[in-house]
């Protein structure tokens, strides 16, 4: 049996008027979800498996269709997040035209949020909720044997003999060390790059799954899978790093939701990297209240060069609404400590949050300037589906109806990502964001500091492109921000 897994082109992402300069120019990350699945298929079956990542190739749908025509596949799996639903749906249509005999399976975070709506999309034969590395093998066995009944396949969404949609209970993988390492050999390693790397080959690595915290803007706390924190052993993580180094990869982003949840495990990973004398550079995402001087020093010794902190707001009242569990004081302490150790920082901020006024927003920008992070990521808050704030928005009438569910039923390019228009309009928030980016990134002191830290021509080119994007952003008409 021939199986194709596709990461769709991205020409219709729902970014709206929501610039994200640093993220936009980070480059491309390998589709780890598909590569994990491919590794499991390769290890446990004799099926032919191919992974097509159309994003770094920047293929159009016409180019995708040209590639597929004349090929034969029994099964095509397509990765989908809510923000890539339009592209995933377009890919479904392309596959149906080019390979009409192939059965199509959709999987990813979007399916878990909207299983029935996903299965009901035209051209979709099956959908998978949750983690599928092991359950997909059971599905392939049923599919290959021509079985009509799939009731024993965890997480599968399908139509029974009467046409009724069935949603099987999900399967949570408790021991992540049992999951085969992602099969990076199936994609072009050189297609992936990052603004924050220094010209080296880079990749993302996921060392844990789930997050135990309860931020109200995030869908993790309300999911039976992502609310449960599970982690890989230090030995297993370093095994993946060493495998990647065989491809020439030297830069890594540990893309866990929160890397330092388990302090002892982080120290063990660092010790294992040092024991094998691995000369690598890596950065992580975590919280300001989950690091201390010992762990930061150990991480730096093991090759960590940067930490991404989710700050979100510069006002304590807003942080309480977000249920972040820390204060602005703690943010300042942690950034000062991180700089003292010699690690770079990236700070994430949002504006347009519930009950936020212009003073709160000014507090956020003032904090961004005071912290002096190496990079900042400003974004307009959007109530994502499956989050506490999305449900609160519908309760308060700020969000008039369940628009994400409507979009899941009918993905079309006219859809606009919701924003929290309580005290500011969408256009006002956009203008504020533009001003934030220009005032932060175009400061002479900041530009000089980045220039002297540039270590290669490739790095300089990437940063120049990012800077050009800031320059060409629409000028803000909001002049009340200092």
Outline the structure in words.
This protein is α/β, with parallel strands linked by helices. The chain has two domains: 2-167, 3-Layer(aba) Sandwich (Rossmann fold), CATH 3.40.50; 193-470, tm_1862 like domain (pyruvate-formate lyase- activating enzyme), CATH 3.80.30.20. The protein is 39% helix and 16% strand. The protein has 19 helices and 15 strands. It has helices at residues 21-24, 32-44, 54-57, 61-68, 85-98, 109-113, 115-119, 135-144, 234-245, 263-275, 293-301, 316-321, 328-341, 358-371, 388-396, 403-409, 426-441, 444-452, 457-471; strands at residues 2-7, 48-53, 75-79, 103-107, 126-128, 156-159, 165-167, 201-205, 208-209, 230-231, 249-254, 281-286, 304-312, 344-351, 375-380. The strands form three sheets. A seven-stranded mixed β-sheet has the order 2-1-3-4-5-6-7, with helices on both faces. Strands 8-11-12-13-14-15 form a six-stranded parallel β-sheet. A two-stranded antiparallel ribbon has the order 9-10. Strand 3, helix 5 (85-98) and strand 4 (103-107) form a beta-alpha-beta unit. Helix 4 runs parallel beside helix 5, helix 9 (234-245) packs across helix 10 and helix 10 (263-275) packs parallel to helix 11.
């Amino acid at each position: 049996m021939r199986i194709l897994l596709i990461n769709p082109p991205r020409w219709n992402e729902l970014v709206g008027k929501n610039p994200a300069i640093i993220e936009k120019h980070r480059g491309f990350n390998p589709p780890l979800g598909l590569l994990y699945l491919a590794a499991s298929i390769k290890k446990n079956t004799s099926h032919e498996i191919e992974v097509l990542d159309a994003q770094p190739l920047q293929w159009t749908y016409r180019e995708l269709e040209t590639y597929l025509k004349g090929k034969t596949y029994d099964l095509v799996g397509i990765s989908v997040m809510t923000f890539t639903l339009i592209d995933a749906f377009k890919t479904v249509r392309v596959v149906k035209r080019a390979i009409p005999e192939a059965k199509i399976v959709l999987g990813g975070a979007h399916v878990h949020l909207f299983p029935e709506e996903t299965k009901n999309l035209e051209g979709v034969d099956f959908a998978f909720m949750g983690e599928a590395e092991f359950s997909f093998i059971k599905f392939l066995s049923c599919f290959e044997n021509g079985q009509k009944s799939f009731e024993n396949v965890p997480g599968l969404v399908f139509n029974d003999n009467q046409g009724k949609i069935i949603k099987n209970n999900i399967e949570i993988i408790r021991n992540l060390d049992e999951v085969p390492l992602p099969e990076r050999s199936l994609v072009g390693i050189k297609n992936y790059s990052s603004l924050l790397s220094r010209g080296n080959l880079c990749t993302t690595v996921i060392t844990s799954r789930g997050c135990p915290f309860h931020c109200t803007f995030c869908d993790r706390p309300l999911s039976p899978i992502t609310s449960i924190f599970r982690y890989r052993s230090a030995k297993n993580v370093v095994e993946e790093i060493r495998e990647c180094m065989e491809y020439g990869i030297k830069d890594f982003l540990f893309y866990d939701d929160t890397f330092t949840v388990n302090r002892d495990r982080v120290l063990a990973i660092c010790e294992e990297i040092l024991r094998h004398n691995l000369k690598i550079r890596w950065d992580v995402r975590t919280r300001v209240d989950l690091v201390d001087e010992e762990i930061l020093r150990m991480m730096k010794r093991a090759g960590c060069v940067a930490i991404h902190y989710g700050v979100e707001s510069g006002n304590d009242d807003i942080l309480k609404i977000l249920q972040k569990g820390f204060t602005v004081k703690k943010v300042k302490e942690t950034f000062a400590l991180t700089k003292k150790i010699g690690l770079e920082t990236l700070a994430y901020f949002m504006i347009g949050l519930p009950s936020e006024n212009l003073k709160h927003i000014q507090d956020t920008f003032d904090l961004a300037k005071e912290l002096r992070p190496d990079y900042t990521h400003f974004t307009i808050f959007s109530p994502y589906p499956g989050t506490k704030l999305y449900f609160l928005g519908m309760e308060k009438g700020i969000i008039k109806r369940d628009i994400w569910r409507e979009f899941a039923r009918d993905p079309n390019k006219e859809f606009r990502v919701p924003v929290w228009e309580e005290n500011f309009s969408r256009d006002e928030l956009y203008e504020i964001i533009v001003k934030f980016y220009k005032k932060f990134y175009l400061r002479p002191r900041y530009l000089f500091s980045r220039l002297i830290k540039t270590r290669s021509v490739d790095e300089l080119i990437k940063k120049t492109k990012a800077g050009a994007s800031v320059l060409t952003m629409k000028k803000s008409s909001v002049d009340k921000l200092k």
